[in-house]
Amino acid sequence: MSKAHPKKKESSSSKVSLSDRQTEAASLAATSSESLGGVGKYRVPIWPEWNDADVNREKWDSNRGPEDGKPTKSPSAPFFEDPEGKLLLPQCLKVHTWKRPAEFIVDKTPTVVDNQMTFDLVSPNCHLLCSELMRWIVSGIHILWMQFNCPSTEHEGWRPWGHIYSMCKVVNGHVPLFNSYGKYIIRLYWMGCWRKILVDDFMPFDEDNNLLLPASTCQSELWPMLLAKALIKVANTNLSDVCGGMDQFTFIHTLTSWIPETRPIKSVYLREIWDFLQHSIPTFKHLDDSLPVTKPEPTDAAQVKDSTLSSSKNQLLESEQCKADPDIVVCAACYPFQLHNGSFGFRQMANSSEFLRRYGLSLLHSHAVLLTRTRACPLESPPKPPPVPRWKLIRQPKEILVTAEPKKIPLSKPEQFIEVASPFLSYRTRSSGGSVPEPETKQNTPRKCSHRSPLVSITEEEETEYQEGLELDAAECTTNSPNCTDKMEVTAEDKKNSDDISNDRPQTEIKEPVTEESYYATNKPVLQKTWVDLEDFDKCFQTLLVFHKPQTYQHHIQKSHFKNTVLSKTTVAVKCSGSSTQTLSSGSLAVASPEQCPEVRGTYYLCVDSLQPSQILISFSSLLLWGHAAEEKQEMSAARRSAVLIAVPHSWTSLQSQLPVLSIKTTSTKAAVLNLPSGRHVLCIHINAALGYHVHLCSKTPFIFGEEETIMPHLTKESAHFTEQASSIFRALSRLVASFSDKQQQPALRKGLEETHCPRNISTTQEKWEHCKVFNLAVYHMLREALGRKLKADEQFAVQALTADPSLFPEEYPPILNADLEPPEMWRDREPTDREVKAVTVLQAGFRGHLVREILDASKPGTKENLNASKILSSVWSTIESDAHKHAAFLLRHIINNSKRKADLYPCLRDESTKIAFADYTVSLPDTANSWVLVFREIFLVSEEMLVIPKVYSPLPNCLLHVINNDTGEEVNTVFNRVAPHVYQPNKLGYTFVAEAITPELPPSGAKWRMCLIGSKEPLPKLSRDTPVSEFSVEEFRDYYIPNNKNLICCYRVHVTTDTVATVQLQTSHPDVLIRLSILDHEKQVAGKTGKGHVVIPVFFFLVNKDTEENKQEQSPSENTLQQNEGEDSAVKKSISSSDQYQPPTETMITPVHKYVVQAEVLYKTWNLSESQLAFACSVKDLENNETRVNKLEDVKRSSTTSTPNRDGLKSDATKTQRKTKGDKGKPAVANETSLDLTKPNWMLRVVTDNSKAKGIDVKRDTERIDQIKAIKKAWEMAEPGRSAKAFQSRLHFLKQVQQKECGDAATEENNDASRPGQDISQSASNQKLTDTPCSFPHMDYSHFTRHQKDSPVVMDSYIEEAQQRERTEKIQTYRLVREHVLECRKQEAFKRKELMKCQLEMYQNMQAAFEQRCKNFHNTCEAFNSRHRASIKKEQEEKEALEEAQSAALEKQAAFTSASAQPPNKQDKKAGKKK
Questions:
Q1: pTM of the predicted model, to two decimals?
Q2: 306-310, 657-661, 814-818: range with highest mean pLDDT
Q3: Using CA atoms, how far apart are residues 44 and 83, in angstroms rounded to an integer?
């Protein structure tokens, strides 16, 4: 399609070209070099990271890339098409056709940006607001426009078209130009970095020719549509958009890179939310009371509205108590409730919808609103009280109000309001039929707009109709921003309409003449504002969106990982002033399909060490969908689960699991704040996502985040609290040394030092005295450590004076007593008398008293001794202060290690659980494929008790570590095939660490195996030699399995010429066979282990026989490295690796004669063979029996060879497999494996030794019994030549006689031979083959071959059989009697138990009845008492009332009498005259 085509033909031709373009786009995406392997319909790479240089080199007029210049489609195409295909819109927006700008913009020239002053995305897009996605796009853009373009902001305003690049360079303030080719680049933030997203200019339209992307009021502008296409692309990677809601996805994060923190809004959190908002957003306040109020209060409703708007600058002041550029931006959101929420969800939905309508919002139009201000005062300032004359202030009377009831103080509701701004405030959607809009989840058809043209320009009449839907509360809502200076005119029609509106919901109609030029010239705010009561805030909104600006944090670390990345991720550390930044930069990344590889998992570690509480903002972004078509998204959303990030406290020295402290579950991007108290904390962060993830950590406190190799070196240092505690003690001690001779300061400094080093939880005098002793010794050892020598006598005296402790050196002072002097001759061989002992005691007491007095005098300022001690301490202290940090830590560590109360001594000890010490040992992995290999075997020496945890890092998944105590032969316990934390005790021979593994078919080349020994402190186990050995000599033995009566698999004899450490391994072709591998010494088991299909004896010491001269000559001193390192006799190392038995060395084992045999056997007959396998095993056994025959005649050998032609091949194969093979550098020779049929039951035995000891060990098959038989036969032949030939002739003669016997007798004898023990089955088979006759043997006398248990044999007869039968019958009868007795006893016991239960039940019922009776009696007593008490109270009240009545009557009579007697006499005379 091109511009030259007529309009009428464009609609038809566009459909054809659309299918062609989709086909070309699909083929283009399929040929992409870096693609998502089979992820969805389109194979496209992940959007590359933003690079200014690449954008500046972009080719805007072709499909050639900026660097390679290779076209991705036909070079003759006149327009650009998105390689990702057509945009996927929400289900409620049905796309009918796609058009380019030249097809629907005909009156004007298309431009990207026309008006750079303002825009409106609400009024021309009413047909799109049925989609929640479109509402969030419109509200997000308007919120950012208001936030960035506020006059209070100091930085340059944000422009939405600034994300679009077309035919322009990357500079500040650029303006994109219209590209007729249709290629545009959008810069958006996604997955941790700014991305370069390509879009074309094909716009979707529905059947009514309505544009299905947001547009502005200017018909020629394209930036809203282009920006919306890129935003929808990013939103399509979110599962929540597929499910019908936005969930945690926000466009503000995509447009600004602000980190979105999601906080739930609930009624229980309202107080915390209010406090947070008051410190985060501006606060509304009134003007100063000193300003006069001159304007009278209007009475008309329109005048009230006009006066409220016009006097906003004079009467109200919006005091924004925050920074000009705030660190965070706070929004709130309400999400539509789903149908699966149940009845409670419907009730909550109804309440929320009612409250939202009250404030001009709608639940059906869920979107994000901006929180602009908080208000804790009335909206209008209260009127000032009228002035009071000064004379009224003099002796003001107290107002007394007499009431019948006590006056209640009215509780006034606090003024707590939150101002929200929204582009859809009081917005009423109108369709052509005037129906009420439905939720997006129920709407199947797109909303129809009454406008015929795709882009609608707002006229004056339509503006008036639009404003008819605005319902504002005059007391709570403000329709204009305080920054706007437009004058609003209220017409007479407004007054007429206002009479018809209810008092509850006042509605005003604002009419303003608007033209296109005046609308562009003025900066009219689109966001309308209203005040929401805090009590209704949780009913209107469900989520609080807090956007954190990353640039406000000093420390940042980011980690990203995607599935099957093309370019490996590299971590680059960027050093900034006052900040630490670590980012991951990766190239164009491609992702593999989820069906081909599992989910992406990551494990990182976070270390925070601070003296103050710290907050860490963790942002987690996940990639769950990529390149999926619309029909595939529903299936993927059901199969995929949300990505999860879990932070758990971690300790390398413990296996105890702890509860998570933070959990983030999201489908897009979500953040949370991790609050940590002061101290050092180590957290393990586990991440699980479908295709990839990105983690961004921000904090104002320094922290460390990364792999184990990054975190562990920092944990070997002391914590910040420990360093601070040590520094404070060292500073106090330094001040005391500096002012040691100052009379005024020394007492206060000594008291301050005591308060610093003495813990606060020590209260008793005894504990304080013990702690002071420990501190004084720590000071002494610190000085010795700093000087690197023992202290001299004057230095010791100075230290005693410093600590005021004369008993500091009881073993070293005075120095002359420690000298090694011989006693005089008169005192030799002589015991002192009691008088002499008493005299010496008196002298020592006198000397000690003198020394104590000198030390106490030296500790007091002003004395001569004090001056000398001060000079000595000053000279010594200069050396210590050169490395104050090290010596301070040594001082505090010595105090902690020698105190009795280590756990609660100092608060810094809470961080000791995070302190570790570690040592790494690395070896190369062998290149053997699909085989068992020995990776590591070394001996470590333990000098003191220590807690050690070995941890293995291996690229091979099947790697197992064993730790064996060489003194006891016991193996350290394992948990889930990992060595558990264990406290290693010091021993003589150390501990052997053995690692085994099974290599895959394609082993990694040049891979390294690493073991890390982790402990809580130094020292760690020490390697017995300088470097670990990774190359071993392997002897392999493989053969077929032949069943036998003893269930033996193999038996090999081991002979050594020098002490050798070996590892023995056995595996079978059948994986479910239970095997017992043993090492015997003189037929006594010294080591053994049981396994299933595979068994390993990790380490065993084969000792040489010291009594032979050959061994003494062949043994060289350089062959035993362990002997040289430990200096121990090798004879002590007696089979210490046994898992079941261990024989400690004794005196009788000093010079033993060892006879080692390695033996393997099948347990519980678990190796069951099929019939074909049994036949094959019998044939192999026959070949072995033939090999045992010696000294045969040549013709006999020829005849046997010709009769069994196939046995020679099996024999040769078997003998080859029995030979030992030695591999070089850990590679076993497998040349003989081809001689065995691996499909038959077989086994393999490996003996692994060091390369230096390979010649000192000889492993052969144990043929001792066969050799003895051969030796006996050979001796017979030598004693009587020709004996073998005579025996062979006699045998042939005997066989001829056998052929003449009857078949019946032969069959009977054959059965007897079969039942006779010890008869060889193969013998009959061989006899039958030699004679070539099917007849059986006649009766023969085999009594001379039978072993007799008695002196004389006894023939079995009927009497013996009857006796045996009687004995068996008696045993059976006895068993029956015993069984019946046991059953009877059990029956009686059951009856007794039932009776006991019945008695207990009756007892409990009686107890319950008694208890109820007691309760009833108690209640009756209480009722009687209460009734008597109430009667007494009533009687007292009646008496009291009667008394009061009597008193009142008496008082009345007395008052009447008094008044009568008090009348004047003239009045009485007048009364008398009147009577006359």
A1: 0.71
A2: 657-661
A3: 7
